Amino acid sequence: MIARPSSPARIAVFDSGVGGLTVVGAVHAALPWLDIRFLGDTARLPYGTKSASTVVRYAMQASAALVQSEGEEPVSALVVACNTASACALPALRETYPFPVLGVIEPGAQAAVAATRSGHIGVIGTERTVASGAYTEAIADLDPSARVHSLATPLLVSLAEEGWFDHPATEAAVRAYLQPWLAIPAVRDIDTLVLGCTHYPVFKAILHRVIAEITGHDVVLVDSAQAVTRRLRELLPAPAEPRTGRVELLATDAVDRFARVGGLFFPIGDASVQLIDL
């Protein structure tokens, strides 16, 4: 490994489970010089069925555990790699920390508005994310003429945590969710679908297949991890001397399972997963 410079950039990332590793993977691939500390709050998964006040409390506890910097370089940015926490807790987190706090909803909304041609944008996510109306609001701020059609698909989180990325049960669940939704004339016009949960990018193949079978056309799938990565590149430019950053993984429960399933989201390799208590 290349020697560490005196002040490497370090970011903290958290999610309710292993889904946030899709963000870690995108960031690490594009910005390999960053040190990344990721926390999956697997003991309290899922966040999407919890009340907004509970999600805020969980997010504050998770972020506090990540940004502790005793004997370490300070955190350069915090990434909330959870759509539910982004919808509920971003204002509280931004009031708490002096460094940039990035959610996944604003970048996802920007990518969706840039991608759509028809102005009809679909959003699938957890119950709490959809109920918050966060994507509808963020997209309306960018393009008031856009029409947003949202659908809660909470079972997909559990299927992703099971590692069933291209499984018959997963395809059946996707079809059960989307078939009646896409039968609605206005929804059928969507040409862009926001994956409003960081667990969902692992289902891209199934989503493309099922949507094409139901509607007869394909849609652009928006994965906010790429948009978050672009924002981090603006905030944290590459160092003058090349280096390879470290990726540190933490979980609040079931570390063996986290390592096994998480390895399907992001190549963990021989890295150990540290158990922490919030």
How would you summarize the topology of this molecule?
Blueprint: E1 10-15, H1 21-30, E2 35-40, H2 52-67, E3 77-80, H3 83-96, E4 101-102, H4 105-115, E5 120-125, H5 127-132, H6 134-142, E6 147-152, H7 155-161, H8 168-182, H9 185-188, E7 192-196, H10 204-215, E8 220-222, H11 224-235, E9 247-251, H12 255-265, E10 273-275
> What is the global morphology?
globular
What is the CATH fold-level name of the largest domain?
Rossmann fold
Number of strands: 10
Q: Can you write the helix and strand succession as a string? A: EHEHEHEHEHHEHHHEHEHEHE
Q: How many separate structural domains?
A: 2
Spans of at least 5 consecutive residues whose pLDDT stays below 50 are: 1-6
Distance between the termini: 31 Å
**Average pLDDT for all residues:** 92
Radius of gyration: 18 Å
- CATH level-1 class of the largest domain: Alpha Beta
CATH architecture assignment of the largest domain: 3-Layer(aba) Sandwich
Q: Strand share of the residues? A: 15-25%
Helix content: 40-55%
Structural class by SSE content: alpha/beta
Major beta sheet summary: 6 strands, parallel
Total helical elements: 12
Order of the strands making up the biggest sheet? 4-3-1-2-9-10
